[in-house]
Amino acid sequence: MKITTQNYGQFLINGVNNYTATYFSQIVEGLEHDSVWRYLNGPKLGSKVIWERVSKDIIYSKRGYILFDDSVQDKSFSKKIELARWQYSGTTHDTVMGIGIVNCVYYNPDLDRYWVIDSRIYQPDQDGKKKYEHLQEMMLKAIERGVVFRTVLMDTWYAITSIMQWINSLGYKFVCPIRSNRQILDRWSDPDNPKYRSVKDLPWDNSKLEQGSEAKLKACSLKLKLFRLMVHSNRTDYIITNDNVAICTSEDATKACAFRWKIEQYHREVKQVTGIGKCQARTAKAQRKHIMTSILAWIVLHAQAFTKNMNIYELKKEPLKIFQMAIWRNPHTVFS
Q1: 118 and 64, same structural domain?
Q2: Does residue 103 share a domain with residue 221?
Q3: Residues 148 and 293 in one domain
Q4: Which of 215, 241, 257 is the C-terminal boundary of a domain?
Q5: For the stretch 251-290, what's the b/e string if a residue is b when 16 or more beta carbons lie within 10 angstroms of its beta carbon?
Q6: Nearest to residue 293, comparing CAs of 83, 9, 2?
Q7: Are residues 124 and 210 in the same domain?
């Protein structure tokens, strides 16, 4: 039996916990492990397949957002996998051995719907690219493909001065959190002799908390607005934007930042319903192909869940529920 992207993707959609090639060959009659190996190590499945699959389904909004963030597929117990490297994971808040993936998600605020439109493997040892360079490549590709958006949302990892100025030069807006030690010109403590201070040390009165404040970021020529958001008692976010029209109050900034969590939702879903991080193949080619096929599987599940008015987890568990109902009537192993 020859494995194709369609039946490997079907295996990922059907799977529950075990997504290995060995298990695949065990549950499909006539399928040999070598056939799965040949598929995973066969012709490259590039990121353009994501766009080819999803481009006809996207519904654009003039107020659209593109979201950038990365996730790490934990390979702590698989140190011989070629793409695995030590890198920071936001899930564990620590450095782990894993495979990094930089993702681009499109969000329509009018419909409250989102679609993954691009994805790149973070492999600086092979291609020498930094994460923000993947962001630039994917954003330029989105523009080339005619994706309609107004604003870019990104995490602190990408909120560097050169990227902010680059996005602004292309005519787009951005909203992003910055680290608490970023230097902002303090015009309030001593107006006659302003000095740069860490954003966390700036004086904030009620007016600035509500309306934000114009900000001069060190080594940045852009006209920016800064907001201080109290997420909870132990966390304060500092949000910066070049959008002085749509983001006028802290409520506007909070709402825009909430949209960014759609990409976190995507990260959680693709991990839990497709087994994107559970391939045990050692070669870089096999890992890449498994990851890309997993993203295609998520696209299929996501679209069908919307059509059936279900969340993606309900759709994923529906066959298991049917199986459990059947086995209740006719148990495989009887408790006696």
Answers
A1: yes
A2: no
A3: yes
A4: 257
A5: ebbbebbebbebbeebbebbbebbbbbbbbbeebbbbbbb
A6: 9
A7: no
Domain count, the chain: 2
Residues 114, 266 contacting (CB under 8 angstroms): yes
Q: How far apart are CA 97 and CA 25, in angstroms?
A: 28
- From 229, 257, 285, the end of a domain falls on 257
* Tokens representing residue 100 in the block: 């990094």
Residue spans of alpha helices (H) in 203-311: 206-211, 250-259, 261-274, 284-307
| pLDDT for the residue 151 | 98
Secondary structure class of 133 (helix, strand, coil):
helix
Distance CA 291, CA 286 (A): 9
Which amino acid appears at position 107 of this protein?
Answer: Y
Contact 69, 155 (CB under 8 A): yes
* Extended beta strands in 75-211, E state: 85-89, 94-108, 113-122, 151-154, 173-178, 183-186, 195-198
Do residues 174 and 106 share a domain? Answer: no
Q: Are 252 and 212 in contact (CB under 8 A)?
A: no
Q: 240 and 151, same structural domain?
A: no
Give the global pTM: 0.94
The reply to whether 212 and 85 lie within a common domain is no
- 160-176 pLDDT tens trace: 999 999 999 999 999 99
Residues in the chain: 336
The boundaries of the domain holding residue 307 are 1-155+260-336
Q: Is the pLDDT of residue 108 over 90?
A: yes
Burial class of 10 by CB neighbour count within 10 A (0 to 12, 13 to 18, 19+): middle
Q: Which residue type does 96 have? A: V
Verify that 115 and 222 share a domain, yes or no. no
Encode pLDDT of 201-245 as tens digits.
999 888 888 889 999 999 999 999 999 998 887 889 999 999 999
What is the model's pLDDT at position 48?
96
Give dist(CA 175, CA 226) in Å, integer. Answer: 10
